[in-house]
Amino acid sequence: MVTPSSAGEDPAADSGTAYPLRRTPTQDRASRQVERILDAACAEVVERGYDAASTSSIARRAEIAVGSVYRYFPDKRTLIQAIERRNQHRYTEAVRERLAAVADWREAVDVTLDTFREMHRTDPGFRAVVLSGLGDPDLEATPGEFDDQHAGEFAELLVLRFGARDSHEFRLSVTLTIAMGEALSHLAERLPADDVEYVLAQGRPALHRLLEPHLP
């Protein structure tokens, strides 16, 4: 959630990107083309839905040949997985920067939640992943892979920065906190503005209470 995976665990470490590719771009122009493909896929899913979007329509939107899409991504499912990994990288960087001056673990929870909400509102990539149904085992490489990675990274932050007592129960509590925080964010996005503050005011303390037994 807030710290990068080690090089040995990052499937994209050799390609220099935040996600694995079928073929590694060797020039800046090729790297920009990959980003354009991902941006086009985001726009297609947001506008037309995951089922209606196709590699052909994504290629047209990116103004490239469909073969160029297949050069890097074997199918639409892999494209969405790459978007999520890019999201994860962007989110990690944004949260790391914002947490630099945070001295209280409750504030750290709030900052990660607020950043998640902000990026879902402003970054089409986040909306595309939600609309594609990522979280379904048919779309994820392994069920729960993205939430589990977020939870593991945030648990490490709480241990190293705030003195959390590491244990199996603590890790489960962090996983539950991540899942509840994402659900709270999605709920807030679809409520009338007048209701959002009430829901967040009730929801934040619930997230804090899950972690309180494991922190000083």
From TrEMBL:
It comes from Kribbella orskensis. Residues 54-73 bind DNA. PROSITE patterns: HTH_TETR_1 (PS01081), HTH_TETR_2 (PS50977). PANTHER family: HTH-TYPE TRANSCRIPTIONAL REGULATOR PKSA, HTH-TYPE TRANSCRIPTIONAL REGULATOR RUTR. InterPro entries: DNA-bd_HTH_TetR-type_CS (IPR023772), Homeodomain-like_sf (IPR009057), HTH-type_TetR-like_transc_reg (IPR050109), HTH_TetR (IPR001647), TetR_C_15 (IPR041669). Pfam families: TetR_C_15 (PF17918), TetR_N (PF00440). Keywords: DNA-binding. This is TetR family transcriptional regulator. The keyword Glycoprotein does not apply. Residues 1-30 are annotated as: Disordered. Residues 31-91 form the HTH tetR-type domain.
